[in-house]
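Notebook, bench 3.
Goal today: get a predicted structure for CdiI immunity protein domain-containing protein from Acetobacter okinawensis so we can plan the truncation constructs. The sequence was checked against the plasmid map this morning, with no discrepancies at the termini. Length recorded as 113 residues. Pasting the sequence as submitted so the record is complete.
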Amino acid sequence: MFPRLADLGCGAFGEDAEAFGDTLREVIQDEPQTRVLSFKWQTISELKTLLAGSDADIECVSEAVLGIIPTVAPEEPPNWGSFSNLRTFWSAVLQAFESDPEVQAGKDIGPDM
C-alpha cells in the first residue's frame, strides 16, 4: 500500500541510514534531492494517506517499511537524533518532500538550474 515509503525504508531510512547523513534530520532534508519528481509526488500522496490514519496505523506501517526506529536515539552514531513520535517523524519527511524545489516548481529542474 505504501511502495514509495518502503523504498525510503530500504534506502536512506534503512538499517544503514547513518551512511546518508550526520543526523536524522539531514537525511530527511537530503532525501528528496535524490529522487525524480514522480517519486516525490507519489511519496507526498502516500505520506498524506499515512498521516490521515491513527497513531496505531502509523506505527504498524512504520514497523513494516522502516529499517530504523526514529523515536529511539541510537547509540551509534552519537548525536544522530530521534523524534518524539512516529507522526512527528513522518510529518518532517512530508515537509521535506513538499518543500523540495522541483515539487514547488511542479516540474523537473535540471542540475544546471
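Residues 3-9+22-106 form one domain. Residues 37-51 form the longest helix (15 residues).
Flagging this for group meeting.
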